[in-house]
Structure formats: structure tokens, C-alpha cells
Amino acid sequence: MTWFLNPAVRRDDTFRGLFSDEEYRAVRNYAERHHHPELSSTPLTQLHAIARACGIASVHAKDETHRHGVNAFKITGVGYAVERIGVDAARRGLVCATAGNHGRAVARVARQRGVPCTVFLPIARTPDPIELRTRRARADAMREDGATVIEVDGTYEEAVARAATFGAEKGATVVSDTSWDGYEQIPRWIMAGYTQIFEEASQQWDERPDLVIVQGGVGGLLCAAVSWFAARYGAGRPFVVATEPEHAACLLESARIGSPTTITGSLNTIMAGLRCAEPSPLAWPAIAAGVDAFVTVSDASAVDMMVTLTGGADSERIDAGPSGVCGLAALRDIALAPELSGLRVAVHGGRRVLGAHTRVLVVITEGSVR
């Protein structure tokens, strides 16, 4: 496990992240106006046992494992974005690339709207039975929703390129949560939709968190988090930690270098939803200025946290997938691992980042496919 304290983070009231006040209002108005099932609030679960084990005041987990039956947070952004693109663009068909959860969200929204959907799915990168079972179940679920699933013998980034080419050739609308030159509006809408998760949480917690730990990937959810907290709390926002698999830490490496970076190597991890080689260009500026620290998590730590969550008390039991527990696994590592003692004792707002006073928010981004 590695960590990096971000020297470029901005702690001033002029930093407000990616979105304007008007964009936040549009997301809230959409949620209030449409009352879609996928927009109904998910639980904010207090995890007393993990808080005790970590020696902190509280841990609250925004539990996205049952968001409208697709057991992941992605549909909050996809549903909003497809609404914004309009009926005509949706009727041409939707196309995307996915490691699993994004494709499921696009397939479900396409089914709800009665439009065609094509999903490009990269091959499994490890022989781990958890990954193979998860990938197969998600592909089956996308097909059950009517999507055409095309297997790609390559990386997620190669699947994204295939989806973009398909859209250009067939006239389908590309629904991607990562951006590239000339393609920014739909990823921006998707990330704006994700802010509803934190808006919901703010209506559920009694006291705002001191520490927020969010999964990385290409950076969509993380960008939404740092933007929402900066817009709500300004310079006094919580300390934000980004967490990634140890062999797929493109955000940490980009922060270390000081610019968006494409990493090389195996990218092998069972946290398939976070297996990304490069940040989304649109998300990166807010991440670079808004994230306080970056930390990596091993597959073993993620698996151990999955076991911990399923074996907890009834009120604290969550059946989560590998990517889903990455934030909680990072919290336990920060609290207990000697290698992360420097991050544990870093000072924020005159206090240690992690101590008996600390209130933590994490997002359980996906459920298990068991």
C-alpha cells in the first residue's frame, strides 16, 4: 500500500469544484420532479463495529448496493444524463464501454426508455473467481435488460475507443463517464448526477463528516464528491482521500507527477470497476485541487473487508462487491497499517486526520453478485 499527500490541494473559498450553482439546482430539480425509483434515497448506514476497530467516533456508509435493482451507484448519473440528452438522441440508441456497473446502468435506462443499447466489455484481467463470477453476472444482467454486449480483447480504455467508434459509425449516442477531446457534456451531466448521492447523505447525517473516502477509477464519483463538498462547505470542507487498487492507481500517479498520466503495467485487480489506466480529463482539475490525499488498497484488504461486512450485526451487514468496499478497506488500513501512519497523523483543521474525534463518510459503490 502506498499513499501521497497532495501538495496542490486548494483550501480557499474560491475553489468550488467543477459545477455551477445552476447545475446543482438542475440535478435537485430533476430528482424532485421525476421521482424515478433510481432516485429514491439509499440508506446511510452507521458501522459501529468498524468505527470501534479503527478507534474513531463514527463511520457512515452510503449504501448503493440496492440502487434501483442494479446494485451500484452509476444509475444516479446515467439516468440524469440520458434525461438531459433528450428523446431524439436516445432513440438513436445508446452505446458505452464498461467494467460492469456503468454498462448495467446504461442498459437499464435504455430498457426503461425502450431504446437500443450496445455495451463494450473488456476481458477479465485476472483468473480470480470473484472477478470472473462478477463479470459474468453483470454481462448476463445487461443482456437481460436487452443490451447487446460485445466482448473486447483489451483494456477498458480500448473498450472506450471501440464504443466511440461505434457511436460515430452507427449514429448511436455515446454515454460515457470519462471524457476526451470534443466529448465532455455527457460525462459532465453524469458526474453532476452523482452529486445527488452526497445531497441525500447530507439530509441523513446528524453531523457532517470530518473525513470522506471515495473510490477513484477514472475519477467521476470522486470529482462529484470534492465538487459537492467544496460548493457546500468551502475552505472548511472535510479532508478527502481518494482510494484506488494498488496496481491501478492512475490518480495517485497523476497527482505525484502533477498532471494527468496514463499508467502501464498489468492493472490486475479484482476491483474491476476501478481498473483504469488514466483519469478522465474533465474530472482531473477538480480532483487535483480538491483531494487531500491518495491511498492504494490491496485485493487482499478488499476481500477481507467484504467478509467483515457480510459477517457484521444485522443492522450493519452489507453484501458489497470488491470495488464497493475499497473506501472502507482504505479506512481500516489508514487506521491500523504501520505503512500509513504518516497519513493517519497528518494535520487537518488543527487535528489529526484520524483520531477518536473523527467522523468518516464512505460510499459502498456496488453490491455483490452472489
Instruction: Tell me the helix content.
Output: 40-55%
Mean pLDDT reading: 94
Total beta strand runs: 13
Structural class by secondary-structure content: alpha/beta
Total tally of structural domains: 2
Global morphology: globular
The arrangement of helices and strands along the chain is EHEHEHHEHEHEHEHEHEHHEHHHEEE
- Tally of separate helices: 14
CATH topology of the largest domain: Rossmann fold
| Level-2 CATH architecture of the largest domain | 3-Layer(aba) Sandwich
Strand residues, percent? 15-25%
Termini separation = 28 Å
Summarize the SSE layout with pairings:
Blueprint: E1 3-5, H1 21-34, E2 44-46, H2 48-54, E3 58-63, H3 75-85, H4 87-91, E4 94-97, H5 101-113, E5 117-122, H6 129-144, E6 148-152, H7 156-170, E7 173-174, H8 185-202, E8 211-215, H9 220-233, E9 239-245, H10 250-257, H11 284-290, E10 293-297, H12 299-310, H13 326-336, H14 341-344, E11 347-348, E12 351-352, E13 359-364
What is shown here, in short?
By secondary structure, the protein is an alpha/beta fold.
Primary descriptors:
370 residues; alpha/beta; Rossmann fold; 2 domains; 7-stranded mixed sheet; 4-stranded parallel sheet; 14 helices; 42% helix; 15% strand
Provide structural commentary:
- The structure is a single chain.
- This protein is globular.
- The protein starts with a strand and ends in a 6-residue tail after the last strand.
- It has 370 residues and is of the alpha/beta class.
- It has two domains: 3-72 and 186-364, Rossmann fold; 75-183, Rossmann fold, CATH 3.40.50.1100.
- It contains 14 helices and 13 strands.
- The mean pLDDT is 94.
- A hairpin with a 2-residue loop joins strand 11 (347-348) and strand 12.
